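Mods, move this if it's the wrong board.
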Amino acid sequence: MVVDKEYQGKGIGKRLIKRAQEVILKETETAIIRIETTSQKQYAHARYLYRRMGFTEAERIANFYFSGDGLMIFSKEIKNERS
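Not the wrong board. Structure tokens:
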């Protein structure tokens, strides 16, 4: 998921994540969502959003993409409210 810089900070990313969760829960009672991103500073706003949306950092692999740029994996378990 990517939101153009021009539109960041307007709630679009939050709405996309919420909508994705709704769609997933129409198909199953529970699920674990995994998000992978880079550790680069310019993606700090995205990582902040994931944490605010209830995702936790599940794994970090240093220098995954190149020296100084690691892979960060976030996850969140979601459940249907009627479960």
